[in-house]
Design a protein that fits this description.
CATH topology of the largest domain: BirA Bifunctional Protein, domain 2
CATH superfamily of the largest domain: Bira Bifunctional Protein, Domain 2
Shape: elongated
Number of helices: 11
Distance between the termini: 93 Å
Number of strands: 9
Largest sheet: 7 strands, mixed
CATH architecture of the largest domain: 2-Layer Sandwich
Bound molecules: 3,4-dihydroxyphenylalanine
Structural class: alpha+beta
Radius of gyration: 41 Å
Strand order of the largest sheet: 1-4-5-9-8-7-6
Strand content: 15-25%
């Protein structure tokens, strides 16, 4: 058999082989086998040296055409196999859009956040701004500018975690009073602000104490604000958050940053005011501290206390949530047990 006949045989036989290959990997090894350096075509081209010179061009042409033919057969087969694979895959992965979907579990805001959201909505409706302040706070704002100088005895009630002597985890949201008073431009109108956030105390956790809890601070400063405005505002909070049958009662109290100071009670959630074990048979439950902002607080923040004045209050959403839902251990709010938290669905 001449070299040419040999090549022709390879062409015919191997073309059939190519058509029979059923996977891409095998097709690739066949390509290497046929067209690679050690393949029959390369070999034949090498053997051309032994041919008489006048036969070489036509043999070379023939060998090249065999190579092209095999190459294009391989490419055709590759395309076919790829198409087959895709079709099989598409068939396999067919999506039945009529099948019922898998429900996505929907989250919800934490119960304390739900209460804060309600309070925010209410106050935004009355034209207050909502601001948040730093939890890592300066002694200056947390205490000094709130009329609690360095050796003030009332500091004892609010021991906290100190970062340095002058930097601490804030014990109350009240420093936001000083921070906003300092910046407020009264020529633009009154200051009306609430500030929700987390506060810290060096307390041992028990059913009614947590070393970390929430507060919402509120402050209104303008020219003719009276205690009646404070009471009206607190009554509105009680009615909006809990319902019309809830009333507010103010009792004299003491806070260094207000004068006079009050403690506000709300109608007992449990008995509606009749008297029960929850309210210690008084019909009232203490929910927040408030008062008329102390002139010292205004003056230290650069506000003329002869001209401007107003009220402030600080309430605890944790306590609100405990009372509203009858939760008897504040620690439940911070354990992140999903079984506990999902009870307070927003809809329910
Ligand atoms: N900051 C006080 C506390 O943590 C609560 C408070 C009382 C805030 C009276 C006020 C206020 O704004 O007027 O105990």
């Amino acid at each position: 058999m001449t070299l040419k006949d040999q090549l022709d045989k390879i062409r015919q036989e191997r073309k059939e082989d190519i058509k029979d290959v059923v996977d891409l990997k095998k097709l690739d090894s066949l390509r290497v086998e046929l067209l690679g350096k050690k393949g029959p075509i390369t070999q034949a081209l090498r053997g051309m040296r032994d041919l008489p010179a006048d036969e070489r061009p036509s043999f070379g042409q023939f060998a090249n055409s065999v190579r092209d033919e095999l190459q294009s057969a391989i490419e055709t087969r590759r395309d076919e196999l790829k198409k087959d694979m895709l079709n099989k895959q598409l068939e396999h992965e067919k999506i039945d859009v009529t099948l019922p979907g898998k429900p996505v579990a929907q989250g919800q805001p934490h119960v304390i956040q739900q209460i804060i959201d309600q309070i925010e909505d209410l106050f935004i409706g009355m034209g207050y701004q909502v601001l948040s302040g730093p939890e890592v706070e300066e002694d200056k704002y947390n205490f000094e500018m709130m009329n609690l100088p360095k050796d003030h005895p009332a500091r004892d009630m609010q021991d906290t975690f100190y970062i340095t002597k002058e930097i601490l985890m804030r014990t109350q949201t009240s420093p936001m009073q000083a921070r906003t008073l300092e910046k407020h431009d009264f020529s633009q109108g009154p200051l009306k602000m609430i500030s929700p956030g987390v506060v810290y105390r060096r307390d041992t956790d028990d059913p009614t104490h947590s070393h970390q809890f929430h507060q919402v601070e509120g402050i209104v400063i303008d020219k003719h604000i009276t205690m009646a405005d404070l009471k009206g505002t607190l009554e509105l909070v009680a009615h909006e958050l809990f319902g019309d049958r809830f009333d507010i009662r103010l009792r004299p109290s003491y806070f260094p940053f207000t004068e006079p100071s009050v403690e506000a009670d709300i109608t007992c959630f449990n008995c509606g005011g009749k008297g029960c074990a929850v309210c210690k048979y008084t019909g009232w439950i203490e929910v927040l501290g408030a008062g008329m902002v102390h002139p010292n607080v205004l003056e230290m923040a650069g506000v003329d206390a002869e001209v401007y004045g107003g009220f402030a209050f600080g309430l605890g959403p944790d306590r609100f949530a405990m009372l509203k839902y009858g939760v008897d251990d504040i620690r439940n709010f911070y354990l992140n047990d999903i079984r506990f938290l999902t009870q307070f669905s927003k809809k329910g």
